[in-house]
Design a protein that fits this description.
Number of domains: 1
Number of strands: 0
Order of helices and strands: HHHH
Shape: elongated
Radius of gyration: 22 Å
Structural class: mainly alpha
Amino acid sequence: MKEGDDDDTKSPNIDSTWKDLYRIAAFAAATIVILIPVQILIFVISPPPRTAADFFLLFQNNALLGLSSLDLLFLVDYVLLIPKF
């Protein structure tokens, strides 16, 4: 084979129109890899309340922690999965 010939070991040429989508998907995947351990850490440090009254009390004290207890970060993860598929 000559040096200029294409063979199967080289990576395929990526269409430049898809390049931005690949970058967005890579960013989304990296963000998900970071957010899932953060969500697990939140559940370990502050387990979700057991009753509805405790949820209301948690929301009064700390709204962000209350939303995190209701899987806010997992919802963000699911939205970030859209560019991947």
